[in-house]
Fold this sequence. Notes:
Structural class: alpha/beta
Number of strands: 11
CATH superfamily of the largest domain: Vaccinia Virus protein VP39
Order of helices and strands: HHEHEHEEHEHEEEEHEE
Number of helices: 7
CATH topology of the largest domain: Rossmann fold
Number of domains: 2
Amino acid sequence: xSETNLEKYQNPEKYDELYEHYQDDYLYIMEYxxxxxxxxxxxxxxxxxxxxxxxxxxxxxxxxxxxxxxxxRAKQKATQEQLxxxxxxxxxxxxxxxxxxxxxxxxGNSFQHFLTNESQDALFESVxxxxxxxxxxxxxxxxxxxxxxxxGDVSEERYLNSNNQTVIExxxxxxxxxxxxxxxxxETIIQEREQSIQQSxxxxxxxxxxxxxxxxxxxxxxxxxxxIHGSWKKTVFEESSPQMIVHCKIG
Length: 251
């Protein structure tokens, strides 16, 4: 995962506001984690959105992320809840945690931050090194619906912020078929009395991986494919499914 592809996460508080009520991934993970009495590893844990509620259920958690600001927010929240969670600032493709876990998971489509074949390979080798024998790895990634990606997208939304200022967000998406990377740019303009007082631009690149690519990738690194779902609610994976929820294990 590249440190240059993290612009979208510069405001951890805003991230929490957007996703604090989302629980589908937490509920899925909890189903497989509830009886584990050894450390569970949450990769790309961000602000601890899933790590913290699992810890509150009595599970021993390790949260890993590359972004210092997101981790600081996670630590602050854990301290407020009086939870003992080990947070580590590390690259998920080069982990050195000194433990082997029965379960490692990565949510929030973070898999799409691994933009090259080499970085994907490194991620799976890193995960494998930290999985106990028979241990499971669960992660999600957006389903590459080619018709949508090929069309590209330009959109705009307007809303009032907490200061009663008008916020205009202009979104542009462009897909590179050769690299299978979607380049997303958001230009934000804040206005008062129709005058711009602040303007910023942020971008993110997201790699799309196809189902058969994933199966071959997992097999290459010694993982056994358990299941694929079309959402965290375990819907059947279909052509139009928005996501791929991948569940695999090491032998």
